[in-house]
Design the sequence.
């Protein structure tokens, strides 16, 4: 049976080979989530107090100056299982998808409730895309504004499309004009 124990934040040891990174912005998002919803996901540790899962939550706890955090000790894991779980815990969540209709309905519902959408993890551009994904967005900008901000989003349907696009974007050209890009993309 899993048992939650509160452990001093400073006593937890980050796993030295943790391959997952956390930007300062993401740690702030996690901290805001903990502040809003509470510490709802305990840190997973081994018998020595080394973090197996929850490095970002521990970093956020330190930002919030929390003296203790909830932990669950996974003492029965072998070294190989522990190493694998450090990766699996992060990667498996990334493998999930979204039901876009349900997501849109939930975000619109949160808007109607005047909930702070910054707390759900999507950035402003992602929210704008989700909320305006009717493919009929009228953008009214000047040529100068266009030249200053030429960011764009490309949605790949498969991992193969993404890999091909990444290869294209890594090509050794200083500039790719849209018409050339369009020709290359037509070949993919």
Sequence:
């Amino acid at each position: 049976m899993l048992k939650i124990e509160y452990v001093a934040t400073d006593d937890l040891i980050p796993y030295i080979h943790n391959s997952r990174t956390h930007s300062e912005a993401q740690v702030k998002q996690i901290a805001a989530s903990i502040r809003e919803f509470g510490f709802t996901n305990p840190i997973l540790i081994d018998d020595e107090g080394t973090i197996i899962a929850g490095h970002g939550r521990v970093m956020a706890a330190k930002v919030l100056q929390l003296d203790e955090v909830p932990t669950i000790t996974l003492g029965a894991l072998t070294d190989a299982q522990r190493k694998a779980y450090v990766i699996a815990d992060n990667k498996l969540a990334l493998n999930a998808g979204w039901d876009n209709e349900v997501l849109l309905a939930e975000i619109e519902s949160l808007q109607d409730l005047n909930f702070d959408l910054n707390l759900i993890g999507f950035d402003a551009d992602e929210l704008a895309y989700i909320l305006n994904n009717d493919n009929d967005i009228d953008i009214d900008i000047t040529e100068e504004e266009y030249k200053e901000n030429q960011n764009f989003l490309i949605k790949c349907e498969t991992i193969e499309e993404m890999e091909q696009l990444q290869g294209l974007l890594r090509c050794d050209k200083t500039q790719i004009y849209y018409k050339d890009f369009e020709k290359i993309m037509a070949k993919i």
